[in-house]
Amino acid sequence: MKIGKWNVLFIAAVFVGLIVYTAKTDGLGNLLQAALSANPVWLAAAVGLMVVYWLLEGLSLHVAVKRFYPRQRYSTSFKTSMIGQFFNCVTPFASGGQPMQAYHMVKTGVPLGISSCALIVKFIVYQFILTIYSLVTLIFHFSMFSKSVSGLGYLVLAGFGVNLLVIAGLMCICFFGAGARKVVNAGIHLLAKMRLVKEKQVLQNKAKKEMDGFYEAFLAMQGNAWLILKMGLLSIVQLTAFFLIPYALYRSFGLSDASIFSIISAQAFVLNLTSFVPLPGAAGGAELGFHAMFAMFFPQQLLSISLALWRLITFYFPICAGMFFTALFIKEKPRLSKLEKEYELASGLEKCG
């Protein structure tokens, strides 16, 4: 998959803009002083939490693949996961991650049917856990944040609604497959009538293929309750690690008044807020969300540097790390011969189940 040059330029521009904004807001001298005053142990903890997030991401994918492909190694699953991190960050709506992960797994010997199924199972479990996690934080802390952050509360609810609709859509595909196909086909037909989409049949065939993939993954999940439970628990710990990164930054500046759960909730709200931002890395929306949500925790003089550090750790660090693994993959010699690869892609060989 090629990365659009405009995506790269946009990400670079946002990075430069973030640094310029931070320096202009607080002054370069104050910015450096604030950065140097941060406790390096807590900063290392913030970076470590991001690494834990990656390790658990790889482990969650690994248990799904290994269930249907016992020869899979964790190191390979981790590489696949990191390649996905890179393409998730540099493509709108994180749309490039899964295709590249499937491609990498096929290149390293995993049959196409199994790789696709494992990725879909992982997506369903992760999305379900994220929705439940977000619901819990909304129940306990939405009123507090909505009063403190005027207007953004509705955007958080809208983001949660997007995640809820995704889960509802997946459930409809799994339990009401025929009806879901009719609704999707009718929607595509309507868009074609309005001349908003071209090649109606091609789009309908693509939608059918995607829905069939989700249904096959659902069938695989039905007979593997223990697998789903393990992946669910891994996703909970994984999300918690990610949500704790702002807390580590908060403590790095010697702050301690806010509760851990309040900061976890704030980060969960930021993630919900950025669910519908159609830009690589939810650029712009993520920065705005963090600034608005965490203004109630960080003093004004530390808010900008905290935002910059958070974005470096949670967005630009994954890009750099993912780019490293992507570059390694490009240089690797595939395990499969060209003929074997073509056969795998053509037939899918094995199906999960």
Residue stretches low in confidence (pLDDT < 50, at least 5 long) are 339-350
In which range does the helix fraction lie? over 70%
Tell me how many strands there are. Answer: 0
* First-last Cα distance: 29 Å
Sheet/helix structural class: mainly alpha
Radius of gyration: 21 Å
Q: Give the helix tally.
A: 15
Supply the number of structural domains: 1
Which sequence of SSEs, written as H and E, runs from N to C? HHHHHHHHHHHHHHH
Output mean pLDDT: 83
Largest sheet entry: none
Shape: globular
Provide the β-strand percentage band: under 5%
Catalytic activity: L-lysyl-tRNA(Lys) + a 1,2-diacyl-sn-glycero-3-phospho-(1'-sn-glycerol) = a 1,2-diacyl-sn-glycero-3-phospho-1'-(3'-O-L-lysyl)-sn-glycerol + tRNA(Lys)
Membrane topology: Multi-pass membrane protein
Organism: Youxingia wuxianensis
Keywords: Antibiotic resistance, Cell membrane, Lipid metabolism, Membrane, Transferase, Transmembrane, Transmembrane helix
